[in-house]
Amino acid sequence: MAQPAVNRPAGTGVPDAGPAEPAPASLPAAPGALASRQDHVLIEQALSAIVADIGALDLPVGRPGGDAALAGDPAVTIARQVADMAQGLAALADRLVGQAAVPPDHGISEGDCIAFLETQFRIRRLRGRHLPGLALGEPAWDMLLDLSVAHYWRRETSVNSLCIAADVPSTTALRWINSMTKAGLIVRRPCQRDGRRSFLAIAPDSYAAMLALAADALRTEQRVRSRYQRRNAA
């Protein structure tokens, strides 16, 4: 039986915390997951931790073009080397997350697949307008749809933004984010400008699976549409 929907004021950003909900069950790995994806996630998490640790160090960095004494200070030299290392690690983690598996040839373009996924996301938002009395939330699916579109357009997704996309109370969204990260469906990557911050992105295998799903769905839609067109023409 559908549970009653939680009324939330529109346009308030992250949804208000509703009634306590049980934590989501452990999610299985995505179909077709390979050991390489698990290695990728572990490497990305390790790099994120290293960048965060470096960012937390209280090291003097001096000012560009500053005093010659500061420029020759060994502590300043070390600090600059550490800062360069942090930037390099952040860039490496960024490339690892951005290296999505090459989508197989479905006979349908990547752009058409993403357009379908974005349409599904927007349709899900319309459900609340036309069926306001029903609670039909699927936060994990909403997150995968949102992250797929963000990946295609090379947009960064913050934790707060993904909580809003999930359309559930923020505490529930955060539990799902943690479960999906542990399952390797999504990954965290450090911000190149600030190692203490991180963004969320869809894992390469998950992105490829979403494209395959979209391609199958578009073919199915075309077959069903053709059947109705034949009936209407009869």
> How many domains, as an integer?
1
Q: Can you write the helix and strand succession as a string?
A: HHHHHHHEEH
Spans of 5+ residues with little confidence (pLDDT < 50)? 1-23, 28-37, 61-69, 97-102
Q: Could you name the CATH homologous superfamily? A: Winged helix-like DNA-binding domain superfamily/Winged helix DNA-binding domain
Predict the CATH topology: Arc Repressor Mutant, subunit A
Beta strand count: 2
Rg calculated over all Cα atoms: 22 Å
Could you walk me through the main structural features you see in this protein, from its secondary elements to its overall organization?
This protein is mostly helical. It has a single domain, classed as Winged helix-like DNA-binding domain superfamily/Winged helix DNA-binding domain (Arc Repressor Mutant, subunit A). It has helices at residues 35-56, 68-71, 74-98, 110-130, 139-152, 159-166, 170-182, 204-233; strands at residues 186-190, 198-202. It has a two-stranded antiparallel ribbon. Helix 5 (139-152) packs across helix 6 (159-166).
